[in-house]
Amino acid sequence: MSHEGIRIVSAEEAMREEATPKLTGDAISPAKVRVDKSGGTGMTIEWRDGHTSSWNFAWLRAACPCATCHEERNAADRAPGIAKPKPASLLPMFEAPPRPVDVTPVGKYALRFKWNDGHEAGLYSWDYLRNVCDVEARKQSQKL
């Protein structure tokens, strides 16, 4: 369970988080941020250390860092960016793809997305975005 600013984690989750080195400095400082809200393609950040990260909106929505989404992902053992499975049904209902209705900066450290499904609780900090990007890049390079 999480409360404002407090996150309770299991020992296993704490060990996983400690095993992943966190990036700092220019690695988590954006030089340029592009959110293609009207085109619907996603977001790209060019970091001051020269790295470029890109995400589509479906991935960003599934990686929401708010306490509710984080706890739900942990309970289902899903990584950030992996959407929860849809229930099987005979006649699946149409669901609009995730798109931001509004994107606003939060100070100099984060973005807040208001999604078309009404969700807007997550603050996507530069630190969070770069670190989940780096984790995904490492996973992809390990698969090669």
Automatic annotation (TrEMBL):
Any coiled-coil regions, as ranges: none
Gene3D superfamilies noted in UniProt: 3.30.2020.30
Entry annotated with the keyword Metal-binding: yes
Gamma-butyrobetaine hydroxylase-like N-terminal domain: residues covered: 39-130
Protein origin, superkingdom: Bacteria
GO molecular function: metal ion binding
UniProt entry tagged with the keyword Metal-binding: yes
Keywords: Iron, Metal-binding
InterPro entries: GBBH-like_N, GBBH-like_N_sf
Pfam family, one: GBBH-like_N
Protein name listed in UniProt: Gamma-butyrobetaine hydroxylase-like N-terminal domain-containing protein
